Every structure is written in C-alpha cells, then in structure tokens.
Backbone:
C-alpha cells in the first residue's frame, strides 16, 4: 500500500456509507491495485489527495454491482476494480478541470470590501426618516410624485401654483434633512 515516497492508506471498511457489507474479494482486489491507482492519480492529477476517497467509493460501487448481478466470490476482480477506479478518476479529473479560478487573494479582498450595499441601506433609512417627518400635505405630494404625477398636475389637485407647491415641498425636505444631520453628529 505504498505510494511514491509516502505511505498512503485508504480506510478499508467492511460496510459502505449506507451500511451495506462490502465483498471481501473486492476489498482484496482494491488492496492489490492500490499502488497502481496511486501512480495513475499522480500522473493524471499531480495530486494524491483524492486517492483514498476514490478507492473507497470504487470498492463500494463494484461490490454493490457484483451483489446485484449475483456474481460468486472469487479472487479475480482486479481488472474490474481497476477499470472502475480509472473511470472514477477520469470523472474526478474532468470535474476538477471545470473549475475556473477568478483571481488571487488580493482581488478577492477587493470584492469583499465593496460597501455599496451599505450606502444603499443608509440612504433607504434616511429616506424613511424623512418621509415619517413630512407634513400630511407634503407626504401626499411625495406619494403623487412617486406615482409619476407632474408638478403641474399636483398643483392643480391641491389648488396652488406649481412654484408654491414645489418650493414648499423642497423647503420642508431641506429642513428635515438638516435636522437629521444635526442629530447624527
């Protein structure tokens, strides 16, 4: 079970993840092809970290398959386990190659530091404070402007001139804004 200079081992279990027994002939075949599997992984991925997990999954999968077809116990399962391992390894390699790295730690920290959402939330909170402090008349003006009414239409509804309604509205907004700014300082 040696692989390169380091000795790697896979956890040879008697039961798979679902608690089903793993056939002893398949487990033995897994041990006998372990070095080949490690070498193949090192060549294909230049990394040995997925060896053990791939072997565990392969042994469990082959065992389930042989039980399902009712195959008798025998010592000649090396080829089947090796082919199943290579297929699993190729799937793993293909999946790993689909990953697309977007940059280094510097670029990631720049993305994490984007505080635009904070400014949006603060603006929304300030807007809500202003709306709560508006007079009934100017709250109606704001609602009509939000509904895309023109100043001329609003002035006609209220019965004043366009300049009077607009100036009154903006004077009150500025007064409230100044009051909020003083409170926050």
Residues:
């Amino acid at each position: 079970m040696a692989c390169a200079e380091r000795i790697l081992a896979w956890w040879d279990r008697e039961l798979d993840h679902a608690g089903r027994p793993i056939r002893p002939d398949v487990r033995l075949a897994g041990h006998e092809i372990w070095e080949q599997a490690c070498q193949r992984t090192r060549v294909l991925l230049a990394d040995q970290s997925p060896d053990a997990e791939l072997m565990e999954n392969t042994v469990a999968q082959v065992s389930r398959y042989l039980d399902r077809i009712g195959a008798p116990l025998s010592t000649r399962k090396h080829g089947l386990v090796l082919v199943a391992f290579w297929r699993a390894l190729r799937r793993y390699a293909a999946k790993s190659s689909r990953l697309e790295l977007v940059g280094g730690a510097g670029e990631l920290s720049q993305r994490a530091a984007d505080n635009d959402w904070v400014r949006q939330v603060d603006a929304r909170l300030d807007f809500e404070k202003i709306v709560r402090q508006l007079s009934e008349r100017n709250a109606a003006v704001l609602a009509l402007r939000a509904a895309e009414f023109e100043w001329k239409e609003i002035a006609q509804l209220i019965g004043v001139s366009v300049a009077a309604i607009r100036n009154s509205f903006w004077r009150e907004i500025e007064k409230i804004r100044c009051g909020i700014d003083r409170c926050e300082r």
Notes: The first helix runs from residue 24 to 32.
